[in-house]
Amino acid sequence: MERLTNVGLIEGTSPAGTFKTDTLGNRHGFHLKKVMVPNGSPEIIKLHYPQSEIVYDKRAIMEDSTIDLIVISGAAKNDLDLVAEVLQTGKHVRLV
What we know:
The protein has helices at about 40-50, 60, 80-90, and strands at about 5-10, 30-35, 55, 70-75, 90-95. It is an alpha/beta fold.
């Protein structure tokens, strides 16, 4: 059986709205474990990510030893600092 890659999602303020995870999921080997949204309603976020834990601090994702990949959605120009922080944790990072 294949091992699932645990993913943490850090959402920025994206004009497109909440990042859709249709391309992620168990059938592609990914498990969206935690989602952090700085300016979102927990109820709305839970509708989009019912299987995921909602967190309010990026450290809860970055310091989770079970998360392999961190996706940063709706990144702003100043999010390069965030990318550097994630890379320093030894995790993979993807901007979408």
